Amino acid sequence: MYLHLPLILYLVASALPSHASLFSRGSDHLLHGIGSAHRHAVKRSSGLAHDLRRALSGILVEQADSGTQHVYCVIDPDQAMNTSLTGNGGTKASGTTSASASSATSTAASSPWKLKQEYQGNSFFDGWTFFTASDPTDGTVQYVDQSTATSTNLTSINGAGNAIMRVDTTPKVSGNRPSVRITTNYTYTEALVVLDASHMPTGCGTWPAFWSNGPNWPAGGEIDIVEGVNTYTNNQATIHTNPGCSIPSANSSVLGITGTVVGGTNCAAAETGNQGCGVRSTSNTSFGAGFNGIGGGVYAMQWEDSGISVYFFPRSSIPSDITAGAPQPSGWGAPMADWPATDCSPSKFFYDHSAIFDTTLCGQWAGNVWNDTGVPGQSESCAQITGTSSCSEYVQNNGAAFAEAYWEVLSVKIYQTS
């Protein structure tokens, strides 16, 4: 008598203890209590918290939550209609357009989410487009093509098999400082996107993000999963849409989330100065130096008919079903952020997304809050910290300061139910 290996694996996976109960009490508070939530701010420290630099132009909107806040959009309105994130202004990475960097099959049939695309290991950069146009958010940055990124060591696979995306550290530059922005060639409508990272860009002048975007911004919608600036330590997740999308309340308890609403309840970019609907994590290890200090962790964005949610799990508290490749979001507890379909139908406002990494410098968020304090992680302004009055001047003349401005990514996995 014998058992098939898949069945054995299934039984073992089912027997493993679940960590879901850890999060049922509010993941951000628990993560803080156990020193887990290590913010994603490593490379993107241009904290999007309130300054959601969304896709249009990144108009500043002041908030009174934990000090002066600013919300920005990632896409510049002047470029939204004529610059494709996966076409114009970019160079395609080697590898197939629609095939995953490595296409794997989930080993556990118990999860409705099936692995469609996986970017990991030596083939991580296959299936991405390197964006090379001018920065839509007016940063002091020059995005480079894949060949340049490879030859100048801005991208690499380290000894641990993890993907590295760096900001240039040349001591002085006369213009914009080189960096990397990449977009998946694979597109999806409804998905579970899982990012496992051990480090993200951080430091004054940085503005890193991991996000997704649809066509004809903001018609196809934008979902900011990880974003922040400068020395921020608390991640902000945000959505930007066409008019007609909102969240039913700004009250975290009503929404059933562990984060705090910071950008209002109207998610329409054109009606809110591009701020959208932002939610800030209450964990000071969810972004930047805090995130890096705990060895990073996992961000998961679940997009289905019932709504869009973002979860964060510090390295020490990653659910076993994620590790097993058979994610079960229903057991993860309360999300950090949630935008329910009750007042914003995903099928109407979001479609054909690509996932994006970028690290810009200064620009409409990190640059505009250079003199500000009051946001978690920013007890002193970057002007005070650096002794430099201008973000651009600092970026151009202090290359060594960007040694921590890099992403280290173990994997990006895109799951879908069909």
From TrEMBL:
Residues 93-107 have a biased composition (Low complexity). Residues 85-107 are annotated as: Disordered. One of its GO terms (biological process) is glucan catabolic process. Residues 1-20 form the signal peptide. InterPro entries: Beta-glucanase-like, ConA-like_dom_sf, Glycosyl_Hydrlase_16. GO terms for molecular function: hydrolase activity, hydrolyzing O-glycosyl compounds. SUPFAM superfamilies: Concanavalin A-like lectins/glucanases. Residues 104-362 form the GH16 domain. Keywords: Glycosidase, Hydrolase, Signal. Belongs to the glycosyl hydrolase 16 family. This is GH16 domain-containing protein. It comes from Fibroporia radiculosa.
